[in-house]
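Lecture notes, part 5. Sequence design as translation. It can be helpful to think of inverse folding as translation between two languages: the language of shapes and the language of residues. The source text, in structure tokens, appears below.
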């Protein structure tokens, strides 16, 4: 057994379970990709079920909010459809970065509306959602070149 392997084995034997002394770059990268994918799935579920669905089925609370805005049912259905499209696109590899940017822009608008119309009652929610969306947009930015290549081939 080499000295390095023996030292690693000795360290592994004395290390409590679940404690990582040193992790290889590929292992860290894999764990980061898994965590990012899990975050995308959670956000997609949130946008599809908790945000878009009430608007698309015309739930009373969503309808009241959009009436108060003066946007009516057309605005409610439009925002719901955009959120659902963004949720689905978060799960499509070539669209992930663009979807995160688009949903982030939607959240900027939601924040402004919350401040201007609803006195900031739920203004923290869009701000909180912008953080993981920005992370996804940045982490998946390499896919934008793939999307451009695909679009150029189609045109």
């Amino acid at each position: 057994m080499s000295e390095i392997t023996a030292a690693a084995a000795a360290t592994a034997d004395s290390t409590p379970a679940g404690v990582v002394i040193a992790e290889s770059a590929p292992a860290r990268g894999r764990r980061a990709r898994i965590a990012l994918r899990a975050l995308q799935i959670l956000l997609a579920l949130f946008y599809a079920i908790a945000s878009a669905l009430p608007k698309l089925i015309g739930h009373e609370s969503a309808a009241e909010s959009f009436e108060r805005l003066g946007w009516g049912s057309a605005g409610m259905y439009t925002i719901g459809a955009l959120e659902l499209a963004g949720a689905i696109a978060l799960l499509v590899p070539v669209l992930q970065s663009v979807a995160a940017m688009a949903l982030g822009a939607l959240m900027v608008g939601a924040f402004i509306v919350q401040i201007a119309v609803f006195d900031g009652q739920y203004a923290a929610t869009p701000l909180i959602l912008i953080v993981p969306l920005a992370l996804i947009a940045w982490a998946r930015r390499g896919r934008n070149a793939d999307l451009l290549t695909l679009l150029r081939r189609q045109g």
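The translated text above is only one of many valid answers, since several sequences can fold into similar shapes. The chain has a mean pLDDT of 89.
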